[in-house]
Fold this protein.
Amino acid sequence: MMNDETKRKLREMNLPEMIQMIEQQNQDSITLSMTFEERFQHIVDFVYQEKYNNKVQGLIKRAKFRIPSADITSIYYDQRKIERNVIQELSTCQFIHRNVNVIFAGFTGSGKTFCACALGREACKQGVRTRYIRVADLLIERDEASLLPRG
């Protein structure tokens, strides 16, 4: 059983997930029979995954995607004449590391926004800060920035 002081210290170190997992383990008879190393490994794995998930969710939220639930696996390729191998290659996000731009062009309803948001989500999963912005809004921001005095 963990005392209140230890819980306070873990919260101060921003590790509430560790408290959660330890308490969960204390209620599970199977984990009580594990060695210290095994239990500790489960705790570290759980905390790591929770921190990663929270980081990705924060990146997705700050990206302001128009379709935040867009996912690469949900793209309809056949009906929209989208090349699967091109999207699969883009989903690795190597274009980011090579400083290559990706531009989606097509008719209304062809899936440009969905594909852009899905790729942005993949970038967030890889820890890349991303921002969804339409070209029209980007041009407005550029014009506003050019009016600001430089100094």
